[in-house]
Specification:
The chain is 44% helix and 18% strand. A hairpin with an 8-residue loop joins strand 7 and strand 8. The longest helix is centred in the C-terminal third of the chain and has 15 residues. It is globular. The N and C termini lie far apart (42 Å). The model has no long low-confidence stretch (mean pLDDT 90).
Length: 260
């Protein structure tokens, strides 16, 4: 069956087994809330499928691990369907992520440029990276063919709150040595506290806390590693050539990876 083909192709390291178990009841959690929104035509946008992680063997076997967390997964796999299994969504993630390091397959967007930079910075020390998002489901709009598959900004807060326990558990399963939030201070104030609990934001190496901060969480039971929050790479890239602080942030991130 397709299920068995996907499962045999997918690297079933320990982390993937744990993720698959975590995601096994994803549709009962989401189906009603998402279906209600998607059935209402009045708002002209719909909710996507969830961004479910797949751990490469390279990440699972890495000496040090980085979790890079963005805002939301742009138009991820079109309009939500509870017929898309966790295995199918994990496999789509695996293929998409593989493309981000395959020449000729990826588009050079700022966030994926940073993803590839992290791989380079960590190559000598056997450090690898996994990509996640605060919003696990995003909004989608109609594309030119009339299908609900085009990305658009933002995510449905109530639906994504249903994913908070899953988001926390993903961190626990993936055991990163550092988490880098690239979502800017608006997302920090709105979501990071709610998703992971209260913390103190500490300035780093003479750069303003607004631009980059280390987040020191109060709840030790989450066993969070070092956590850094900075702007989205698109914004950083716009400032990289005009100002020194854009370059400075990349230097701080590079040093943080190399020092793991």
């Amino acid at each position: 069956t397709l299920h068995h083909i996907i499962m045999s192709d997918m690297e079933m390291n320990k982390m993937n087994k744990q993720l698959l178990e975590l995601y096994s009841d994803i549709h009962p959690i989401l189906s009603d809330a998402v279906g209600k929104w998607n059935d209402d035509a009045s708002h002209g946008i719909r909710i996507s499928n969830p961004w479910l992680l797949h751990v490469s063997d390279r990440y699972a076997n890495a000496a040090k691990r980085v979790m890079l967390i963005g805002q939301e997964p742009w138009g991820w796999k079109g309009q939500y369907s509870n017929e898309k299994s966790a295995e199918w969504l994990m496999e789509k993630y695996r293929v998409f992520i593989d493309h981000q390091t395959t020449k000729g397959e990826y588009r050079p967007s700022p966030i994926w440029n940073l993803y590839r930079n992290i791989i380079e910075w960590g190559r000598e020390s056997n450090t690898h990276v996994i990509s996640n998002n605060i919003g696990k489901l995003c909004y989608v709009k109609k594309n030119k063919d009339g299908k609900w598959e085009a990305g658009t900004h933002g995510f449905h807060e109530t639906v994504n709150r249903l994913m908070i326990p899953i988001f926390r558990k993903e961190i626990e399963i993936c055991q990163p040595d550092i988490i880098i939030f690239v979502c800017g201070k608006d997302y920090e104030h709105k979501y990071i506290r709610e998703w992971l609990g209260d913390y103190e934001a500490v300035g780093v190496e003479g750069i303003s806390k607004e631009k980059l901060a280390e987040l020191r969480f109060n709840d030790s039971s989450l066993h969070l590693p070092k956590v850094i929050r900075t702007y989205h790479p698109r914004y950083l890239q716009m400032n990289k050539n005009k100002t020194n602080w854009g370059k400075e942030i990349y230097s701080i991130l590079e040093k943080a990876i190399r020092d793991l």
